[in-house]
Amino acid sequence: MAYPKEFEKSIRKVEETREERLKKLPERMKEKEKDELLKKWHPDYKPEAKRKLKVGVSKGSIVPNEVADIIEAYPLIKPDEIDLSQVDYEADVLIIGGGGAGTAAALYAYYEGIKPENIIIATKLRHGDSNTIMAQGGIQAADKPNDSPLIHYLDVIGGGHFANKPDLVARLVMDAPLIIKWHEELGVMYDKKPDGEMITIHGGGTSRKRMHSAKDYTGMEIMRVIRDEARNVGIKVLEFSPAIELLTDGNGRVAGALLYNLETEQYYVVRAKATIMATGGFGRLHIQGFPTTNHYGATADGLVMAYRVGAKLRDMDSVQYHPTGVAYPEQIVGLLVTEKVRSLGGQPVNVDGEQFVHPLEPRDVEAAAIIRECYGRNKGVVTPTGMRGVWLDSPMIDMIHGEGTIERRLGAMFRMFSRFGIDMRQEPILVFPTLHYQNGGIEIDADARVLGKNGTIEALFAAGEVEGGVHGKNRLMGNSLLDTQVFGRIAGINAARYAKKARKPRSLSLEHVNKYVQELKKARIKEERKAPLLLPDYRGKEVLSRAIDIL
Amino acid sequence: MARKSKKGEKQEMEMVRIYIMGKEYKVPAGLTIMKAMEYAGYRYIRGAGCRAGFCGACATVYRKEGDYKLHADLACQTTVEDGMWLVQLPFTPANKAIYDMDKIEADDKTLVNFYPEIARCVSCNTCTKACPQELDVMDYIQASLRGDIAKAAELSFDCIQCGLCAMRCPAEIAHYHVAQLARRLYGKYIAPKARHLEERVKEIEEGKFDEEMKKMMKMSVTQLRKLYNARDIEPEED
Lengths: 551, 238
Ligand SMILES: Cc1cc2nc3c(=O)[nH]c(=O)nc-3n(C[C@H](O)[C@H](O)[C@H](O)COP(=O)(O)OP(=O)(O)OC[C@H]3O[C@@H](n4cnc5c(N)ncnc54)[C@H](O)[C@@H]3O)c2cc1C
Ligand code: SF4
Ligand code: SF4
Ligand code: FES
Known about the structure:
- The complex is a heterodimer of chains A (551) and B (238).
- Chain A has 551 residues and is an alpha+beta fold.
- Chain A has helices spanning 8-23, 31-41, 65-71, 100-111, 149-159, 166-186, 218-233, 301-308, 340-343, 363-376, 395-401, 405-409, 411-419, 479-501, 511-522, 541-545; strands at residues 50-52, 62-64, 89-96, 119-122, 139-140, 200-201, 211-212, 236-238, 243-248, 254-260, 267-277, 313-314, 319-326, 347-349, 381-382, 388-393, 429-438, 441-443, 449-452, 455-462, 467-468.
- In chain A, the strands form five sheets. In chain A, strands 3, 4, 8, 9, 10, 11, 19 and 20 form an eight-stranded mixed beta sheet that branches.
- In chain A, helix 2 packs across helix 10 (363-376), helix 4 (100-111) runs parallel beside helix 7 and helix 5 crosses helix 6 (166-186).
- The radius of gyration of chain A is 23 Å and the shape is globular.
- Chain B is α+β, with helices and mostly antiparallel strands and 238 residues long.
- Chain B contains ten helices and five strands.
- In chain B, helix 4 runs antiparallel to helix 5 (149-155) and helix 4 (137-146) packs across helix 7.
- Chain B is flat and about 70 Å long.
- At the A-B interface, helix 5, helix 6, helix 7, helix 13 and strand 17 of A face helix 1, helix 7, helix 8, helix 9 and helix 10 of B.
- Bound molecules: flavin-adenine dinucleotide, iron/sulfur cluster (2 copies) and FE2/S2 (inorganic) cluster.
């Protein structure tokens, strides 16, 4: 056993209570109970962790401090030093971000009739290095006879605390089966029964079993198939070339973007008839110091760029903490333990092997319950580095579904823990909430057009984790992969339709950036922070304290 | 509260020596290779993607002192060891075949037609030994050669396309591209279609849910909340 000796007593207790716990689950919480729990224990309900935005279209709205820090930050460039007269790339449709949403958008722009050489995906890391490729659990779609888009609608909107935009939710659930069908036709290997029926299970907050999966590599399977397809049709991809600002035509129409080659440090000017923002989420901002499940490039660049051009933000006050991030071993702290572990029967239990919450409450409730168990009731397990966590009793899965289930359906999880000497078939795993998902984002309409103060911002679309409104204040598992595909598709189609009718933007401008800087100065914001962040900096403190910039 | 306590964390940190591209650094024991390189002062541009074992961006090879073997692993999923000499290989040049999935067929020649080099496999098993996912890489190449698409798809399913197999193969095969095609052929042509899915898509296209959806969209929060709280939940058991 790779666990420290101090854990042994507690693990024994978990083993002793297992038989009993198999027979009975705790009650699901009533609404009032949930509300009280959230208020007291969910990190989102701490007022001191947030503040009002001082500038921009959504001035006055409340966001986490870390988000305010990058919104109230100065640009990386001085607009006057940039030569916009030389255009490096021309595009009908420019897509910023090569994850699930961006790639789906590119393919649908192509299906809509745009030539592949006129579609550009500009992305920060490699094509597919994204949150999408990390999604394990699954993707929701109401395609079984006992289910319907209407029931799915209710689950989404209730899970989102009724704050979602109804027309976005309707698109999400009505287009879901169509997306799964598209994937099936592309050759995505969804888990199926021998007769072809999709194997579907519950996720937190679902009332029907509608979670489709491809083992616990669902996002990877979807991502690598659509990426392969994008390569087949010849879509142009610029890797390690993040966007650092949007460009406009000087009259409020978005006209492309300024890219930055991370390796050569030169900039590129891309002129585009239509632009799609698909940069994903913000996990690497480490809201409230939490570790995160997100990929290396999840630094909310899209929010910053779109906000400077006038996009509204919404629901940014709520942040999703995944209830089960790794709490031990130290090497992988914060990484995701998929919800599927609970869907398949793994129960959260405390240091004494007792149940304290139903395994499949909505994420915020589940997370708050775990935090309360550790810090309110002092019933957590303390790790050698002083972190606290609760057990997720994974060996129950094979007891319920038969030996071999963990290896077959949770291969990625099993492999990750095995690499560090923990056999989750035999031993429970230690978990604590981790920063997972950006619930809110740039506001869009049901055609994926970005909304500003006075209606839509011309020629700018957004899809995926960067946009808000689909999930209200809390996203349910399986609805964000879906979001990327549904709204990626819609953005791709509408950007293509727009581009087919539009002329090339006649001039290119960064004037909106100058204006934003003036606003920052007027609000007396000091010039100490710059954004977009592009990449987090994890270099050792000692090295940084002696680093000098001379080359 | 998610952070570990500051107290006592730093005292007597055990250090190990690693050699990053031949240069010695002392780093705390118990870090992953990725975090150790960052500790040593490297800031990644290439070589880091998901940081969690899913994207294959952090392919790394290393030798240990006194060990003849050249190991291959993922920097984000491997703990540093004293005396490790390492370098990252964040990019693998490899040609991908171009195909139109609607026009090709899943027969026993498809894979070898698109990737004739698989016939050059000398069964040395080097690819299998290099695979950080511990897949039976040689077996899926052999299955591909036999035309057993289903087997190749199944054996390669957990491939994160890191390229380490391709870097080591004496027959110069790009295994993960072969496997990608095998899986897509399987998913599209061999796996049985989900009939309920087709049904549902048809119902949606015929507008079966449109009326009720419109009503739902207009409901007040109070009405929705009532419906939501009264939902019947499909039982957990299969
Ligand atoms: C570990 C994990 C597990 C998850 N599990 C599930 C699940 O089971 N089910 C589910 O539905 N959802 C899940 N999610 C959520 C879901 O995966 C994401 O919300 C979704 O994939 C986001 O897709 P996206 O295309 O919007 O963003 P991403 O997939 O993150 O893609 C954004 C891309 O944009 C790039 N980019 C960023 N900034 C710039 C810039 N300035 N210029 C150019 N490019 C840029 C990024 O590098 C990245 O490639 C999970 C998320 C994580 C992290
Ligand atoms: S099969 Fe090759 S590319 Fe795939 S994970 Fe293994 S070594 Fe990496
Ligand atoms: S390394 Fe190449 S030649 Fe050797 S077994 Fe693998 S595929 Fe065959
Ligand atoms: S960084 Fe993605 S596998 Fe290591």
